[in-house]
Design brief:
Blueprint lengths: L3 E4 L7 H12 L4 E4 L4 E6 L3 H11 L8 E3 L6 H4 L7 H8 L4 E6 L14 E5 L4 H10 L3 E2 L14 H8 L5 E4 L10 E4 L6 E4 L5 H5 L6 E2 L25 E5 L5 H13 L4 E5 L13 E4 L4 H17 L4 E5 L6 H12 L8
Parallel strand pairs: 1-8, 2-8, 4-6, 5-9, 10-11, 12-15, 13-14, 13-15
Antiparallel strand pairs: 2-3, 3-7, 4-7, 5-6, 9-10
């Protein structure tokens, strides 16, 4: 298969390219497209055969559910069987946007989308290209991140090509995504609204609308059934081994580890904020600058892991930051990239 790359204006996507991509979805094909979070790999969510192609292309286990994307609130009833009262205020504040809701699955959505569970994950993206594509296709679009399974998510079209060239029909290239980490997944099917995956919408923001919201992000073993996308213990992982340190207080331990690894002739990469670059100037390491803020770090995190992989480093060293706001999502991604292991520091 030859993967077509259709370059579009991210704010005002060309109708011809959108129409071509929509026709591919309608015919059962696969199209990667930008959302505000990461690039998604889309298929007709109403077709079990089309969704099966996502799992095949990504080599994703069938136990890992997929988010369904819609373009307007009216389409929600075609995806979810029941809509709890809490959905309306959440949608008013956060849709379109980086919030995924877990609801009871409508029979219109085949079980393969949800790992044969009775629930479904659904969101309404805000990116103009994603919205134009879903509207033109006139169907719900199942779309996990557009990368090979367990690899760092794609935040630009080049990342999609690295992993999926020749395995999918087309890519809508709308440039780099703006948030850079996936959506927050909020489960509304239990007694209390619960975040199963931190992401682009912070816990604190959700609590201003639903004060009862709590967090329960889990590390699910690779062969186990995941309740939500993004729960597996090994996820977002580069080929290099990731050594994760707890927070800024662990920087001396991180520097010590970097020195020891280079002295043992290992190639070392470090990802960190701009202000941290000078801490490593005396060491022969590759430093990827995530930017000056945590928002920049989220936007550049996956690109950094991929860039250091491209340098063939043996290990990548990183540490966590604040666990509030977008910092919680950054920590979650780093923890899974490190397969759940935290270094002593």
């Amino acid at each position: 298969m030859q993967t077509r790359v259709l370059t579009v204006n991210p704010q005002h996507p060309e109708p011809e390219a959108i129409a071509e991509a929509a026709e591919i979805l309608q015919s059962g094909g696969l199209v990667a497209f930008p959302t505000e979070t990461v690039y998604g790999l889309g298929a007709n969510a109403s077709s079990a055969n089309a969704v099966a192609r996502i799992f095949e292309a990504k080599q994703r286990p069938l136990t890992d559910p997929i988010i369904v994307h819609i373009a307007d609130f009216a389409a929600l009833s075609t995806v979810a069987k029941t809509i709890p009262p809490s959905v309306a205020p959440l949608a008013k504040h956060f849709w379109p946007g980086a919030l995924t809701l877990i609801l009871e699955r409508n029979d219109n959505i085949p079980p393969i989308v949800s790992a044969n569970q009775a629930t479904v994950a659904v969101r309404m993206p805000s990116h103009p290209v994603a919205r134009a594509l879903i509207q033109a296709a006139d169907l719900p679009v199942a779309a996990p991140s557009a990368n090979a399974f367990s690899r760092p998510s794609a935040t630009m079209a080049a990342h999609v090509l690295q992993d999926l060239d020749g395995r999918i029909d087309a890519i809508l290239d709308g440039g780099q995504t703006t948030i850079g980490v996936e959506s927050t997944v909020l489960d509304l099917t239990g007694e209390r609204p619960t975040i199963l995956r931190p992401g682009g919408i912070a816990l604190e923001a959700l609590q201003t609308v639903l004060p009862a919201v709590t967090m329960r992000a889990k590390l699910v073993e690779m062969d186990a059934l995941a309740q939500s996308p993004g729960q597996l213990i090994k996820h977002y992982s580069p080929r290099a081994k990731v050594l994760l340190f707890a927070d800024e207080t662990a920087i001396p331990a991180l520097i010590k580890t970097a020195r020891e690894r280079t002295e043992s002739r290992q190639s070392v990469g470090v990802i960190g904020l701009s202000v941290e670059r000078t801490l490593f100037q005396a060491l022969p390491i590759a430093f990827f600058d995530l930017g000056e803020t945590l928002e920049g770090a989220a936007r550049n995190l996956f690109a950094g892991l991929r860039a250091l992989d491209a340098l063939n480093v043996d290990v990548i060293l990183a540490h966590g930051y604040s666990r509030e706001g977008i910092g919680a999502a950054i920590w979650d991604r780093l923890l899974r990239a490190a397969e759940g292991h935290i270094q002593a520091g």
